[in-house]
Fold:
Amino acid sequence: MITLIGRELWDFVSEDTRYTVNLFEVLRQSARQVLAQSSIDEAIERCSDRLIAEFIGKYGEGSQGVFNYIADIF
Structure:
């Protein structure tokens, strides 16, 4: 019995020995398109700003927001 992981697993599952090569090329091209518009730091900053705004909108700010969040999940 053989256990496959990583590239070998996905090549086997897809029945394509170039599956991971093709996948990573698609990922590289997508990253180039996204990052051509801004840096990765700027993308992360925009995302974190959006998440913080959503959190505050739903739960409130500061310690009260954290309290509301904890009360919501328990």
Summary: Residues 38-74 form one domain. The two ends are 44 Å apart (CA to CA). The mean pLDDT is 88. Helices lie at 6-14, 19-35, 40-59, 62-73.
